[in-house]
Amino acid sequence: MVATIANNETEQTPADWGDVYHVGPGTLAGNYLRTFWHPVFLARELPVGKARPIHVLGEDFTLYRGESGQPHVVDFRCAHRRTQLSIGWVEGDAIRCRYHGWAYDAGGQCIEQPGEPEPFCGRVKIKGYPTQEYLGLIFAYLGEGEAPPLPRYADAEAPGVVETLTYERRCSFYNNVDNDVLHVAFVHHWSVPDWHTWKAIPTLTAEETDFGVMQHVTRGNGSTSHTMMGMPAISYRPYAREIHDPAPTTHLAWRTPVDDESHRGFLVDVVHLTGEEADAYRKGREGNPLFTDPYSGTPEIIQQVLAGDIELDSLREVERIRLVNFEDGATQVGQGEIPDRENEHLGRSDIGVMLHRRIWAREMRALAEGRPIKQWTPPPARAPAV
Ligand code: FES
Ligand SMILES: [Fe+2]
User: Quick check: pTM over 0.85?
Assistant: First the structure.
């Protein structure tokens, strides 16, 4: 625990270090984000021996799963005449370019040049990036140098049914990071109706932890809870129980920048059921697209909502899982793809937002000035349940 700010502090992040919105190669936030592992794809959507193009942090890459089952990420283009490698094919754990058959191993080293009488593979290398599968997601480390260990979440590894989802949202990832506790009472006043009362407006304090920001929430009736927003952009709620959860559930959500103006949410829910209860739960959801792909089409509907062509309230009857995404999405995209921070008016309820921004600014500044950056670790098992 390093710093705590109370409700009456409202100072703002120094603007000079506050640009979290530009994430491409060579930008400050981009450099900082490249010191973390990011989820880039749902594991269940990448079959063995298949390749896919992906766009992360403003860059294109090739993702493929080798015949060993291991996922790999290498550069987007072949080094020969620059065609897109994802249209090639996988052989073992290598990928072969469709154009003239050059092959690359998982580290990006060229290993075959069938058309060359005197192959010069040894001088040809594209980039390969550390890649790991964890909790049903494929994570990649897109930075320079040696990757740090992939952070592990003890509560998410506890027995249970692991479910993964992803959604596209057409605004900066940081709009989603800035999503505060108070929003639930308003943004979700249809989907979480018990929040729709002024009595539920909580008092908040926030503190820095080894993981990021912990917010303490005290409601009018004296009940308390916590929310964790880990660095750089991870929401973690171990053993939480929401109204639609059939059992205590560990919720993890990463917000991976696609580019400056869009991001992808990757969600893991570990429903802590075992044995027959787990089997029955799985069976009840099998083959139902509502539980495997509930968010298809949401970015387009959100655009229509923001254009005034659809009223958000007219969506009240859609399934709750979809409604929540429309509500959050419309609000966050409604701030602008890159919001206008200079004209914001932050108040006491924004203390968690301010602390997270301050930490980001401090860390980006340290990185820019060549000083050590803080190494973050997820909390140990059985963190306080929300
Ligand atoms: S462009 Fe890839 S082998 Fe020629
Ligand atoms: Fe929300």
Answer: yes
